[in-house]
Amino acid sequence: MVIGADPLYHFCSNDSGNFTRYSSYDRSLNKLLGDLYYKTPPNGFANGSVGQYEAQTFGLSMCGGDVSNTDCKTCIVNASAEIRNRCPSSKAATIWYNQCILKYSNRDFFGKLDNQVRISLMNTKNASDPMVFNLATKRLLSGLSNIAHADPKMYAAGIISLQGSRKLYGSVQCTRDLSSSDCMTCLNGTISTLPSCCNGKEGARIVTGSCKIRYEIYPFVTV
């Protein structure tokens, strides 16, 4: 991970109101981000809450299932700095990087599906046989979803063979505050949007506040 790398996307919520610098909420948020920095790298996920009443803030951070502790720590550092820079007064915000996600809110969002923002990024190249390729993509990602929702890390990655010697690589992941059934709901719902956003594309990723999916024709994950 490159220090200072740009995020994939960020979202500053307008629904939860704003806070001012040096306020009690600001202090709670700074403490929360520090806690997430220390707690996330060892197992790739952390959530928690700091403060009380009007100053209470809830946060969550997660790194990719194949991301090393060192890269995870670097990503959380970048995410913590950038989310404060890009959403300086928002009481709720989310930022996505290639290797991690970080979000916070003044409302308890743990265990709740978050599809408020759905980001789609795709390869510009089209498969030679889109119909066959789409079916292979769905088969791979659906199979991985069946594994991930029951896995303690709510993560799975895998490979399937395509025509000739080509291979298709995929990964899926949910934030670990979700129940197994909600993880499955999030992943299946995200996979179902592929035809409308990424029909026949040789690679794509879709991320939400609760889960993410990705597939490529090159090895982007360790399997």
CATH architecture tag of the largest domain: 2-Layer Sandwich
Number of helices: 5
CATH superfamily of the largest domain: Gnk2 domain, C-X8-C-X2-C motif
Radius of gyration: 18 Å
CATH topology heading of the largest domain: Killer Toxin P4, Chain A
As residue ranges, the low-confidence spans are none
What is the chain-wise order of helices and strands? EHEEHEEEHEEHHEE
Specify the CATH class of the largest domain.
Alpha Beta
Q: Assign an overall shape.
A: elongated
Keywords: Kinase, Receptor, Repeat, Secreted, Signal, Transferase
InterPro entries: CRR_secretory_protein (IPR050581), GNK2 (IPR002902), GNK2_sf (IPR038408)
Family: Belongs to the cysteine-rich repeat secretory protein family.
GO molecular function, one term: kinase activity
Describe the structure.
The chain has 223 residues and is of the alpha+beta class. The chain has five helices and ten strands. It has helices at residues 24-43, 69-86, 130-148, 180-191, 194-198; strands at residues 9-12, 45-50, 57-63, 93-96, 100-105, 119-122, 155-161, 167-174, 204-207, 211-216. The strands form two sheets. Strands 1-4-5-3-2 form a five-stranded antiparallel beta sheet. Strands 6-9-10-8-7 form a five-stranded antiparallel beta sheet. A hairpin with a 3-residue loop joins strand 4 (93-96) and strand 5 (100-105). The longest helix is centred in the N-terminal third of the chain and has 20 residues, at 24-43. The protein is elongated, with a radius of gyration of 18 Å. It starts with 8 loop residues before the first strand and ends in a 7-residue tail after the last strand. The model has no long low-confidence stretch (mean pLDDT 94).
